Recover the amino acids of this structure.
């Protein structure tokens, strides 16, 4: 007589009955790239199936996503108007600001609008903070990030999501929001964001790669992927500074980090399956080496199993469209 775990794997119905991990549509967040031209819909070669959209196109897309069950949109701006301080990021007429307003007008509380807060798509050097010679300055960047966050909350964002990795930015943003009377706007902090090689397609999509005039990479502010305890430290700091939700990014090479952070904090935890992770799945499927839907099913469940509560993924729409969950 030996124990037989295979009894519970005998049929699809049995396997579904005992599955320890579920993914439901309400947990999925769909990222969007928003451009100034309202009717634009420009495919992004590096992210097959994803387009840069203007406000009108975005509203239609979010309406269709909502029909599928996606109720959260994460917005990134893409602009040509760049300067050393990323001022376009706090322009109330900017694409993300107008998108926040339009989505709230159209969908009200039915859709949660999350606005990315960062300088890199708005700065001419492409860094997420103020650049001075070879350095990215920390404290000088905080007021700019806080102002951008306040402007986005004023425009209607339900949640602001700082992705810059400057120290102290959650406290600075919370103080800015509260001083402006925006006490209800939540903060989703990219608490543990690694200096990853998987952001390549995003940087093409958002035109946000580091350029001449500053350090060549983001390693002085994004985390070193050799570290895990440091991620817990970052998450605890952001929790103490007032973050309502926390994030680990990327997701798939960081499942241990997700588990460690999940165990240490008392906030909902998001994981971001980033552009390179999306593109890798697309490339495998394109080559006929794996089934796209099965890959996405495996990835999303793995990240949930590790402990993430929310999943930010470019595959949100196709996953629901094609019933991959
Ligand atoms: C920058 C930012 C990045 C991503 C989200 N916000 C890239 C970076 O740090 O260069 C990556 C997202 C993705 O790859 O899907 N603030």
């Amino acid at each position: 007589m030996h124990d037989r775990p295979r009894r519970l794997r005998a049929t699809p119905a049995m396997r579904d009955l005992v599955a320890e991990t579920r993914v439901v549509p309400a947990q999925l967040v769909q990222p969007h790239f928003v451009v100034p031209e309202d009717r634009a819909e420009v495919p992004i070669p590096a992210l097959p199936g994803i387009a840069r959209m203007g406000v009108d196109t975005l509203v239609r897309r979010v309406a269709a996503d909502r029909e599928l069950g996606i109720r959260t949109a994460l917005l990134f701006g893409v602009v040509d108007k760049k300067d050393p301080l990323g001022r376009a990021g706090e322009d109330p007429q900017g694409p993300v600001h107008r998108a926040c307003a339009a989505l709230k007008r159209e969908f009200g509380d039915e859709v949660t609008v999350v606005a990315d807060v960062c300088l890199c798509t708005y700065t001419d050097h492409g860094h997420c903070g103020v650049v001075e010679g070879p350095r990215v300055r920390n404290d000088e960047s905080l007021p700019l990030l806080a102002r951008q966050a306040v402007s986005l909350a004023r425009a209607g964002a339900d949640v602001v999501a700082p992705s810059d990795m400057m120290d102290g930015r959650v406290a600075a943003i919370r103080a800015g929001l509260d001083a402006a009377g925006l006490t209800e706007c939540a903060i989703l902090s990219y608490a543990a964001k690694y200096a990853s090689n998987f952001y390549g397609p995003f940087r093409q999509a958002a035109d946000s790669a580091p350029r001449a005039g500053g350090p060549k990479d983001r390693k002085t502010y994004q985390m070193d992927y050799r570290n895990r305890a440091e991620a817990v430290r970052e998450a605890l700091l952001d929790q103490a500074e007032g973050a309502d939700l926390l994030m680990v990014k990327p997701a798939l090479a960081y499942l241990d980090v997700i588990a460690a952070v999940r165990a240490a904090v008392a906030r909902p935890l998001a994981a971001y399956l980033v552009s390179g992770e999306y593109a890798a799945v697309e490339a495998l499927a394109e080559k006929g080496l794996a089934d796209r839907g099965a890959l996405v099913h495996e990835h999303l469940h793995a990240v949930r199993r590790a402990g993430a509560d929310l999943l930010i993924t470019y595959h949100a729409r196709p996953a629901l469209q094609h019933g991959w969950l």
Notes: The first helix runs from residue 12 to 18. Residues 22-321 form a domain with the TIM Barrel fold (CATH 3.20.20.70). The CA atoms of residues 86 and 123 lie 4 Å apart.
